[in-house]
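Model it.
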Amino acid sequence: MRYTLRVFRYLRAYRGRIIQTMAFLVITTLLGLAPPRLIQGMVDTATRLGSRSVVALFGIGLLCIAIVSALFAAAQRYSMATIVHGLIYDIRNALYEQILHLPFGFHDQTPTGYLISRMTSDMEALSMFFGFGLGNIVGMVITFLGALIMLVAMSWQLALVALATVPFLAMTTLRSSNLLGPQFLGLRRQFARVTAQLQENFAGVRVVKAFAREQHEVIKFDRQLDDFMVRRLKLARVFMIYMPSMGFLTNLGMVLMLTYGGYAVITGSMSLGQLVASQGYMMMLTGPIRMIGWMVINAQRAEAAAEHLAEVLEHERLIADRLDAIDLGEVRGEIRFENVSFGYEEGAYVLHNCSLEVKPNETLAVMGATGSGKTSVINLIPRFYDVNEGRVLIDGHDVRDIKLASLRQHVGTIFQEAVLFSGTIAENIAYGRPDATQEEIERAAKMAQAHEFITRFPNGYQTHVGERGMTLSGGQRQRMTIARAMLLDPRILIMDDSTSSVDVETEYLIQQAMLEGMRGRTSVVIAHRLSTVKNADRIIVLDKGVIAEEGTHEELLALGGHYRQIYDTQLADQEEAG
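Modeled.
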C-alpha cells in the first residue's frame, strides 16, 4: 500500500472534518452494539414474566436507539462524502496542473488516453477506497471488538467457538490479496490502452473514414478488448474461489456457535435470550470479516490507481524555473546558439555542435531535409526542450536562467498544426492575453489577414469555433493562430510556414500574414515557401543535425550545394508560378 499511503498527504487539509466524522462513526457503531442486549432482555423477560408492558418498554428502547443511530449515521456519511469529494477534487486538480507543467518530452511519449484514464477511472477507484472502504475501517474494528467483548461477557467458551474460523478467513484473505494485486494493476494498464486507442481513433475518425479503414480499426480495437476481457476473466477466476470460500468459512462459524449455544440452552447454562443476543453479536463479528474481502478488492484497486497517479504526479518537471530565474525585461531579440547538441533520447542526438547567431530584427530561414533538425532548432528557443550540450541564449541570457512565463511571453510561437480550443473566436485569439481589449484583438486579426472572414460570420468575434476549431477551414484556423501570436506582440517570433493544405488564395493570405508578423521582430522560421526564403535576411541549411550552409538566397544558390538542390527540387516551380 505504499502508493496509496502517499495519497494521505492530501487529507491534511481535512483534519477537523475527519475528527468530526470519526466521532459520528464511533457513536453510531457503539449504538449499534446495544440492540442485541436489549433483545436478550426482552426475550428473557417475556419467557420468564410474560409481561407485555416490559416487552413494550424494550421495544421503545430499540426504536429510540434506531432513530438516534440513523441520525448519527446520516451525519457521518455526509461528513465523509464532503471529505472524499474534496480529496478527489484536490488530487484531480494537482494531477491536471502537473500534466500541464510536464515537459514536451513527456507528452511526446504518453498517449492522451492514458492521461484521461488517470483523470477518470483511477479517481473513481480512489473515491471508492476512501469513501466506502477506508471510512468504514474504524467502524469495522469497533464493531468486531465490541461484539467480541459482548460474546466473552456472556460466555468465553461461546466466544472461542465463534472465533474458530477467523484464522482460516485471515489466511484466505491474505492469499487472495497477493493474487488480486497484480491482476488489478494489469487490468488498469490494459484499460488505459483501450482508452488511448479510443481517443486516438475518435480524434482521427476523418482519416479512418477517408482511407476506408473502419474494419481495420475495429479489428485492432477488438484485440485490445480481447486482452481486457482475458484479464477480467482471470480476476473472475480468483473471485470464483475467494468469495465462496469466505462465505463458507463465515457460515461455518455461525453453525458452530449456534450448535454450541443451542446445547447450552438445553443444559440450562445459557438463557434463550443470551442465545438470541449471541446470534446478533456473531453477525456483527462476521460482518467485518466478510467485508475484509471487499476491503481487499478496494485496496488493491486503489493501490493500482495510486501507482498510476504516482507515475504522473512524481514525474520530474525537467523544464522548470530555477530558483534564481530572472525576468527578461525589455528584449532586443538577439538569439545565439553556442555549440548546441540535442537529442530527444539519451545518446541519439539530432543536432550536433550547432552554433549560430540571429541579430535583433533579423529574419532567419531554416531549411533542410526531413529529419535534419529544423524543428529541434525552433523548439529550443522557447525552451520546449533543454539542450544536452552547449547553450541557447536570448540577449545574452541562457534560456534556462529565464523564467518560463517571461521567456514565452517574449517568444511567440506559431505551430505547423493550427490548434484551437472550444470557445469563441475572440477567446481563442486572446488565449495568451485574456485581458486584451476588443480593439487589440481586432488589430491582431487584421495583421493576420483574419478580420475579413471573421466579420462575415453572423456573430463575428463571438462565433463559437467548436471542438478543435473544426467549424473553420484549415486556412482560417492557421490565420487565427497567427493572430493569437501577434496579440502577444513578441520581440521574437518562431514558426513553420508550411501551408500545403490550403488553396492558392488562402496560402497567399497566410504568407502575407506571416510577413506582416515578422516585420520589426527577430524571426526564426522553418521555410517551405520561396517568398519566405527571399524575404529572409539569412538562411541556414541543416543536414543530419549539422549546419551545412549559411548565407542569403543568392549566395547559397551560387554555392551550388544543399540549398541549390532544395531550390531545384522544391522551390523553382514556385518561382515560375510567381
